[in-house]
Specification:
The protein is mostly helical and 191 residues long. It folds into 2 domains: 122 residues, no CATH class; 35 residues, no CATH class. It is 52% helix and 2% strand. It contains 8 helices and 2 strands; from the N terminus they run αααααααββα. A hairpin with a 2-residue loop joins strand 1 and strand 2. The N and C termini lie far apart (115 Å). This is TFIIS central domain-containing protein.
Length: 191
């Protein structure tokens, strides 16, 4: 008897298709080296953030002592972002885009706060996406939500039974009990 050798079939069975497909690290195509894709993405991220930090520092009219240089800031931010989102390239890219928009927005002052040390990089990376907008935008959003809620509610209902004004029904409260109930109960004699 000889040793039999089985070669993989050209048409895989249904159960093995999952095994042949790439891992679910969305964003890396078949045939791409994951390390190359990650390295080029991380380098692009550092360069973009570095450009943003340098622009913020160049716009600064007042000479302030920065705790971190733009180079250190960019590297520190990217390392923390990579540590948090290293399992999914798409999640990494998505969060990076949102962070970059927040860093470039002069109303948020995130880039400035990070470089002077007022805001820690780990705190910035761990912020919720809804916290990446400016305070004025948050106020506008809450005002819009309140207005929409008021419009949806429509008519305001009375909070007290005495506020009901109807010609057919007249109800008033007297010491926490309605007048009709007081007439029924002998304990609550109105005379």
């Amino acid at each position: 008897m000889g040793i039999s050798h089985t070669t993989p079939s050209k048409n895989p069975k249904k159960g093995t298709v999952k095994n042949l497909s790439p891992s679910k690290d969305y964003g890396i195509a078949i045939g791409d080296d994951p390390d190359d894709v990650w390295n080029s993405t991380r380098t692009a991220c550092v360069n973009s953030v570095l450009k943003t930090f340098k622009a913020i520092k160049a716009k600064d009219d007042i000479e302030i002592e920065y705790k971190y240089t733009p180079e250190i800031s960019a590297t520190k931010y990217e390392n923390l972002l990579y540590n948090k989102y290293s399992l999914s390239l798409n999640a990494y890219k998505l969060r990076f885009r949102k962070d970059l928009i927040a860093l470039k927005n002069p109303k948020t002052k995130f880039a400035f706060d990070l470089m002077i040390g007022y805001l820690e990089f780990s705190d910035f990376v761990n912020l919720n996406e809804k916290d990446l907008i400016s305070k004025s935008q948050k106020e506008k959003n809450t005002k819009l939500l309140d207005d929409q809620l008021k419009n949806k509610m429509g008519k305001q209902f009375p909070t007290n039974i005495n506020q009901i004004k109807n010609q057919n029904v007249f109800v008033s409260e007297k010491w926490g009990i309605s007048e009709s109930a007081a007439k029924i109960d002998p304990e609550f004699d109105l005379d």
